[in-house]
Specification:
With 384 residues, the protein is α+β, with helices and mostly antiparallel strands. The protein contains ten helices and 15 strands. The strands form three sheets. It has a seven-stranded antiparallel β-sheet. A hairpin with a 2-residue loop joins strand 3 and strand 4. Helix 1 crosses helix 2 and helix 4 packs parallel to helix 8. 27% of the residues are buried. The N terminus is likely disordered. Pathway: Porphyrin-containing compound metabolism; protoporphyrin-IX biosynthesis; protoporphyrinogen-IX from coproporphyrinogen-III (O2 route): step 1/1. It catalyses: coproporphyrinogen III + O2 + 2 H(+) = protoporphyrinogen IX + 2 CO2 + 2 H2O.
């Protein structure tokens, strides 16, 4: 056996291509080319039969360097063989560098994704319910993306209310023994708001049989394993009670639910909505509120706003009193189409309306005067 080593460099790294000839029992010579990297002692390329194989990419390269004549040529003309080896090694190095570039690109994207989560967490009212390291590991999962969205929504709404009121929210974290927990943000006895609550919850565990029956009654086909249905649910919700009777009360809630079935597949759906309850109806407020919601819905599907507005009107109709709770808004549940990504995009658009649909109305009525009788009527309406 004889061998020859050719070293090549690109300024930042150096690789070696080792050529060696061997004879089989039949006496035919085979020329093998192995590629080594300074950063790894493992062999990346080797010849199988008459073909060159890259273990890193699974690509086989054609080689006509096998056979006695090739081996003889190697010994007769080392210069020629070295030149040929340099060409092949260069090609292989190119493929390896291309693959390394792809891997580096993926690593950069992963790092950027993890950094993005960390950067977003800095603006939240509290650290997320789920450990940040777990969120980074599962940054592509819908449960992670939804948790980040509801945390962003909570922070954006709280900051906007703090700015207009001047008071600060008190933050309280709670844990659920069965799994998960939540973050409650409460502003009380402020300048503008008597009480404002903006809450996030992220819970998980096994679905109770009662809950499973309720979901099956709504048309869900659930297949558990050993009688268990692992679930994960999360959402953001808010109720705002202003001092001034001319500033309406607003409610919103957006949530996500997923269940893992016995085969590992997941069932998922979204729900939620936003509605406005004024004590004294202002036409401009109503136009602004509904117009903002309609604009968000229309970005995704023209039928969303009329359908979800009707759903909200029905949902918040007080039958025994024959009256509506307020001027409505939008409401939906069990949204599991057209795709997970499109449904999430729609919900994200909805959460992004909670500040622009409400804060301009608050600012418009900040200095409105009101009587004791109007304040009393506000309390009656609030109690109902």
């Amino acid at each position: 056996m004889a061998g020859f080593v050719l070293c090549v460099g690109n300024g930042t790294s150096r690789s070696a291509a080792r050529l060696f000839a061997s004879s089989s029992k039949s006496g035919r010579g085979t020329l093998n080319l192995a590629f080594y990297s300074e950063r790894s002692s493992s062999r990346v390329f080797s010849q199988v039969g008459a073909g060159l194989y890259c273990r890193a990419t699974g690509v086989r390269f054609a080689s006509r360097l096998a056979g006695r004549q090739t081996a003889d040529a190697f010994f007769r003309n080392k210069t020629l063989v070295a030149a040929g080896a340099a060409v092949v090694a260069g090609v292989m190095a190119g493929f390896c560098h291309f693959q390394k570039a792809e891997m580096a690109s993926r690593v950069i994207k992963d790092v950027e994704g993890e950094r993005e989560i960390l950067d977003k967490c800095k603006g939240f009212m509290s650290a997320p319910v789920t450990d940040v390291e777990i969120l980074q590991q599962r940054k592509g999962d819908m449960s992670t993306r939804m948790e980040m969205l509801i945390m962003e929504t909570q922070a954006a709404f709280c900051r906007a209310l703090e700015e207009v009121d001047g008071a600060k929210f008190k933050v309280d974290r709670w844990q659920r023994k069965e799994g998960g927990g939540g973050i409650s943000c409460v502003l009380q006895d402020g300048t503008v708001f008597e009480k404002a609550g903006v809450n996030v919850s992220v819970v998980y565990g096994n679905l109770t049989e009662e809950a499973a029956k309720q979901m099956r009654s709504r048309g869900k086909v659930l297949k558990g394993k050993d009688g268990k249905l692992p679930f994960r649910a999360m959402g953001v919700s808010s109720v705002i009670h202003p001092h001034n009777p001319h500033i309406p009360t607003v409610h919103f809630n957006y949530r996500y639910f997923e269940i893992e079935e016995e085969d590992g597949s997941k069932q998922w759906w979204f729900g939620g909505g936003t509605d406005l309850t004024p004590v004294y109806i202002d036409q401009d407020d109503a136009v602004h509120f509904h117009g903002t919601l309609k604009e968000a819905c229309d970005k995704h599907k023209a039928q969303y706003y009329p359908d979800f507005k009707k759903w909200c009107d029905r949902y918040f109709y007080v039958r025994h009193r024959g009256e509506t709770r307020g001027i409505g808004g939008i409401f939906f549940d069990d949204l599991d189409q057209p795709t997970l990504e499109e449904a999430f995009s729609f919900v994200r658009s909805c959460t992004q309306t909670v500040v622009p649909c409400y804060l301009p109305i608050v600012r418009r009525h900040l200095k409105d005067s009101f009587s004791a009788a109007q304040k009393d009527w506000q309390q009656v309406r609030r109690g109902r």
